[in-house]
Specification:
This protein has about 200 residues and is of the alpha+beta class. It is about 35% helix and about 30% strand. The protein has six helices and ten strands. The strands form four sheets. A three-stranded antiparallel beta sheet has the order 6-5-10. A three-stranded antiparallel beta sheet has the order 7-8-9, with no helix packed on it. It has a two-stranded antiparallel sheet with strand order 1-2. The chain is globular and about 70 Å long. The model is unreliable at about 1-5 and about 25-30 (pLDDT under 50).
């Protein structure tokens, strides 16, 4: 715990108070907190984080049944090793924070049977429209993966009045000003206590 000495009383007073500042106060501001965009606000504003994860948790916990075409008997989820619930959770996070969700399909050796689904971080994926076809590429560091077409990628987007292709309007973007206000309120209170609550 750190201590701050504060003079008390008038000019002639020698009495001082020691105000304890808990050590955890320094941990609140690591310099990485920000609310400049929806992704940073998600990691810095607890209310936005809770709202987004609550929606993703609710959607991913909805019960579902899988049927083979023409059959009335439900089947087990057919893609072994890729449970649907975590995939839905991550897709909903992507839609809420970036306005788009991307899942890469993988096929068996014959190229006809779907064998896996891999969620792609939407902040790393670029969605282009060329020659009448959707083209997707992923950039991670200096590496670029793809290009993929709609046959290899499941792409979902939030609605947008600005464009018909690419990421739509993320709900977290709409809530960004409110998230920034909450961030600044928390930051003010944090700095107030950080400087001895004076």
């Amino acid at each position: 715990m750190k201590f701050k000495t504060q003079a008390m009383g008038g000019k002639t007073s020698n009495l001082k108070a020691i105000v304890g500042i808990p050590g955890w106060v320094d941990e609140l501001d690591s310099g990485t907190r920000s609310a400049k965009d929806p992704i940073q606000a998600f990691g810095s504003v607890p209310l936005l984080y809770r709202a987004v994860t609550l929606r993703a948790q609710a959607l991913s916990s909805v019960p579902f049944l899988v049927y083979k075409r023409g059959s009335s008997e439900p089947l087990d989820w057919p893609i072994v090793g890729n449970p649907l619930s975590p995939l839905l959770y991550n897709m909903e996070l992507g839609l809420m924070l970036s306005g788009a969700a991307y899942v890469l399909k993988s096929w068996d050796n014959s190229g006809r049977v779907l064998s896996g689904l891999q969620w792609l971080n939407p902040t790393t994926v670029k969605w282009d429209y060329k020659h009448g076809e959707d083209i997707f590429t992923q950039s991670i560091g200096a590496q670029t993966f793809g290009p993929w077409t709609s046959r290899e990628i499941v792409a979902m987007r939030e609605p947008s009045m600005q464009s018909d292709k690419g990421a739509g309007l993320a709900p977290a973007q709409v809530a960004l000003v409110s998230a920034q206000l909450r961030f600044n309120m928390d930051d003010f209170a944090n700095n107030f206590f950080k400087h001895g609550a004076q």
